[in-house]
């Protein structure tokens, strides 16, 4: 993982990482506050071996002996014999093992100093036990050493640091615990983020999309929060989004030049990928070049195209298909004859049947004659059969894929369902892509033979205002 990919991992998962850190710190805080404080008291022994003051060799041997002894005394101190003497001395209500668990020994490196540390919830008890250990151990060792038969004990044990009363608990240590928990939480968060990335099979780049779909990625549309309020490119005709849509329009012209594709279905695997937004904007961008364009809202279960354009959902596609109204009467004009729109019409109980009907095919054939381009806003491919039914009647499909949401398998299934109905996929659009660092790509055909977008008067730039 290079530095840039690492930084992207942190940026994309900052919420997860912060959440893991906060949870770890909060857990450590709760555990720490519930822990009983423990106090320690320490006694230090000095181990010395007897030596003849007149003989330097004997002094050296004595020093070696004491250093050797101190290691075994560290073990000896925690034996049952010493513990039992302490229990008797203080009349403790503890077993030898329970007392041993409270005692830790350590040899100060390269010295003959031995430390015994007693830990207990009561600082007074810790001090009493440590003092008693000091007394008992200093008595027991010479007895053991002299019992070896030499008469005089070769080794002497003296308490050099008496046990003191602790005022500050040794545990819990809130600052250390919280800092450690913070570090562990942070690392766990980064680990989770890395695992999430490893398991994430959503489409992330235009190149990946092209490779997996096997058809060209005709454009990328950046995620833009303003889009919820102003979904149409007319709100900013020279902005980045308008450029991106024009690029898709331009690239579409180059797809399969031998076969004209007048009727283009805009679809996608799932809901909320931006099919309607793309279809509306593409229809506007195409009309901008002077072509006669009609936009049909064929998402009969969730019709939104008319709403995006600020038009009423009156009589529309379903009414024309069942012969309840004529095409002329159902067509609506958007933006002073800039674009024709056929809304979804009355709610129908059988969308798939209607969209896959011969009437639908006849209607599209009729529109093919009247218009240069027919843009059909379709439903998602993986939820219901409507989209595949519509695709079969269209010349080609433009597949909208949502960056970081549409998975590879969903893309595969969508393509398969289109292949099953023999609908050619013209290309894909990667929507909700990360905004490019540069403001403009420097492309975009602003050829506005009919009328520039800025001049198109519409009351539909704000979806919410139109409701
Ligand atoms: N590039 C984008 N950046 C930010 N928001 C977007 C973008 N594209 C679409 N949106 C928003 O996402 C929402 C869903 O978009 P849209 O209705 O076009 O999706 P859809 O695929 O047609 O959904 P459905 O399947 O429900 O019909 C809308 O609020 C739209 O404004
Ligand atoms: Mg839609």
TrEMBL record:
Its EC number is 2.7.10.2. It is a multi-pass membrane protein. One of its GO terms (cellular component) is plasma membrane. It is found in: Cell inner membrane. Its main location: membrane. The keyword Transcription regulation does not apply. SUPFAM superfamilies: P-loop containing nucleoside triphosphate hydrolases (SSF52540). Keywords: ATP-binding, Cell inner membrane, Cell membrane, Kinase, Membrane, Nucleotide-binding, Transferase, Transmembrane, Transmembrane helix, Tyrosine-protein kinase. Residues 1-90 form the Polysaccharide chain length determinant N-terminal domain. It catalyses: L-tyrosyl-[protein] + ATP = O-phospho-L-tyrosyl-[protein] + ADP + H(+). NCBIfam families: eps_fam. This is non-specific protein-tyrosine kinase. It comes from Glycomyces buryatensis.
